[in-house]
Amino acid sequence: MALVSCVLYAGAPARAGEAAPYDTRAAELTVSGTRFVDGYGREVVLRGFNVSGETKLAENGGLPFAGVEDARTSARAVRELGGANSVRFLLSWAAAEPTRGTVDEQYLSRATAQIREFLAVGLRVYPDFHQDLFSRYVFDEDSWYSGDGAPRWVVEAGGYPREFCGICAHWGQNITQNRTVKDAMRDFWTNRNGIQDAFLDTAQRTMAYLATHLEPAEFAGIAGFDPYNEPYAGQYADGQDGSSWEKGLLWPFYERFRARMDAAGWRDKPALVEPNMFWNSNLSFMKQPGGLGGVGPLGPRYVFNTHFYDQARMSGFFDLTKAKDGEYATDFQAVRGRSTALGTPAVVSEFGHPLTGTSSDKAPSVLKGLYQALDSGLDGRAWWRTPAASGPVLSAHQWQWDIYSGRHHEAMNDNPQKIRTEGDAWNDEDLSAVRLDDSGAPVLRQDARLVDRLYPSAVAGRTLAFLYEDRSHDAGRMTTWSRIPDTMPESRRLVGPDRPYGILVWRGDGGEAPTELHLPAGFDPATTTVVSDLGTVTGPGATGAIAVAPEPGGSNARRILLSGAPQGVHFALVSAAPATAEQRAAVQRELVGWLAGTGIGRE
After folding, report:
1. What span, in angstroms and rounded, lies between the C-alpha atoms of 425 and 319?
2. C-alpha to C-alpha distance for 71 and 43, rounded to whole angstroms
3. Which of 163, 171, 268, 276 could be joined to 180 by an S-S link, Cβ 3.0–4.6 Å?
């Protein structure tokens, strides 16, 4: 099957604006130390969404979409409205293996067809066998909560008692309070009744199916596989804690999964492995040892894959304040630290905040803070003083992108008397960044300035520092955390009091492919200004050292291309505001002086 709509690079890097046949060099993703790199050796940052929590539901048979048309609509929308270059694509073990030992190839065929739609618009994809609370079949028709993951036959083989959570105000408390859930989790890690073996068999057959049913050019866009969502021991053995459980049971499982990837034709793709889910909880009484610290360096065949939610603010009880500038710097520096210690890239494959409910008023500030911390390890006040301390830009995928938000028809735990339609239709969650309007078109439920962001999607060299000030709104008021210093008046005048802007500092490698920054839809190319040591321009054209081009895949999304950078340190400031040639020259002089004063890149 031909990929007629994919536009990346052909042979030598494409010039801005040129249509080019699909190029696997740009699509390929490998691990090099703590970085992702593409076939041109460029440093890659993955950004996007989870697609989607609909997989947790039964209404579409454990798939993110009812059919290929909805997948196609969503794929284009996640590119154009969400600024994504990649997605985490959820799969269901229960749907893949409804009967022990029998993999449902019709399910795999439908899943492959839906994945193909995301690849066709130039998005990288990594699948995830998702689970929460082990399985929906743990819960009875009249239960307060539901789960997803393991098939019915797994639960029946366990012979578990009727589930009971006790006093549980949130579904997540089942993880540590519901004995049935805990027993089932423990049984998976100890391979009771051979259920872990069965899961690995199904995972291998799923990966083999994808490898053989996707065209080679399509398969190049598969970024890896997430073996298991939010692993937890369930019940610790005597003397065991999170770290020893990771080393003794979780890591051997990942090694077994890695072997199945190799056998299925995925040898050149990494396993995106998650630690004990409580290792980085921001509630002290929930935090546990973990983070894969006891397993040693992971090497290029694994990626450190973690989640982060502000559980304190999500609770509506433990923290009633809104997030502030630099709120999550320490939390995400811990992720960067694990990446360095493990010698592999990090991905934050889930983060987000409820959009309705008691804590929803905090969503704009929490999401702004989370994206700020993903971009840089510094708060907005410190960045301009010490940009060299900002750390790498983290790859991440927001939870979630569900076009059926608020339009579900899910029988909770298969109970026809408990039809769920609102929000995510799963345990009263409501985190989807998107919904369908009355005409059936996807529309954002969050401030577009917040989710469709400037970010360095491919850097020809190594990122030294990055900052994006989105100027997003909270309760109708614009929020600015990153202000250019008073010592740079022309730069401050360029971005003004309300225009979003970003700045990238990188060490070029003199390679053949350009550095790329995703350009949000809110930036009009005709008035966008780029000031770089490579040149300056307002309204970049289709050619030149600074240009605008379509994102791969034939959508309306756009990117900035910065070409011809020799080895050495470079900078590029991108503003949504226009400027004269004289203004741009003044800003360029300020940035050159600022960069020299920071000492960045002298190491």
Report:
1. 26
2. 29
3. 163
Is the CA virtual torsion 188, 194, 195, 197 positive or negative?
A: positive
Distance, in Å, from the CA atom of 28 to the CA atom of 19, rounded to the nearest integer, reads: 19
Beta-sheet strand order (sheet of 271-273) = 124-129, 86-91, 47-51, 395-398, 346-350, 302-307, 271-273
The sheet that has 35-37: what strands, in order across it?
30-32, 35-37, 43-44, 455-459, 515-519, 558-562, 546-550
For the residues 277-286, what does the mean pLDDT come to?
96
Average pLDDT over residues 545-554: 92
Share of the chain above pLDDT 70, in %: 96
DSSP reduced 3-state for 410: strand
User: Using one digit for the tens of pLDDT, what is the confidence trace for 216-251?
Assistant: 999 999 999 999 999 999 999 999 999 999 999 999
Region 166-190: what's the mean pLDDT? 95
Helix (H, G, I), strand (E, B) or coil at 255: helix
| Residue appearing with tokens 């917040």 | 450
Rounded distance, CA 231 to CA 453, Å? 30
| b/e burial code for range 184-203 (CB count within 10 A of at least 16 → b) | bbbbbbebebebbebbbbbb
Q: Which amino acid is at 14?
A: A
Pick the closest to residue 374 from 347, 394, 388, 351 (CA basis).
Answer: 394
Residue 514 tokens read as 């350009």
pLDDT at residue 1 greater than cutoff 60: no
Please check whether residue 508 is in contact with residue 591, taking contact to mean a CB–CB distance below 8 angstroms: no
Rounded to whole angstroms, the Cα distance separating 540 from 369 reads: 30
Helix axes 329-342, 363-375, angle to 10 degrees: 40
Say what the pLDDT of residue 431 is: 98
**Smallest Cα–Cα separation from 394: which of 307, 478, 310?**
307
d(CA 283, CA 581): 51
3-state SS of the chain: helix, strand, coil percent to 5? 30, 20, 50
Q: In the beta sheet, which residues pair with residue 222?
A: 125
Grouping H, G, I as helix, E, B as strand and the rest as coil, residue 231 is coil
pLDDT at 552: 87
Burial grade of 597 (CB within 10 A; 0-12, 13-18, 19 or more): exposed
Query: Any idea what DSSP says for residue 354?
Result: -
Six token digits for residue 6: 């994919």
Give the Cα separation of 534 and 546 in Å (integer): 8
Q: Is 434 helix (H, G, I), strand (E, B) or coil?
A: strand
Check whether 14 has a pLDDT greater than 60.
Answer: no
Instruction: Name residue 574's beta-bridge partners.
Output: 502, 530
Taking residues 194-207, report their average pLDDT: 98
* CA–CA gap between residue 283 and residue 318 (Å, rounded): 8
Q: From CA 455, how far away is CA 43, in angstroms rounded?
A: 12
Taking the chain, what is the end-to-end CA distance rounded to the nearest angstrom? Answer: 49
Q: Which of 243, 252, 133, 141 is nearest to 190 (CA)?
A: 252
* Dist. CA 355–CA 175, nearest whole Å: 23
Q: In this structure, what DSSP letter does residue 298 have?
A: -
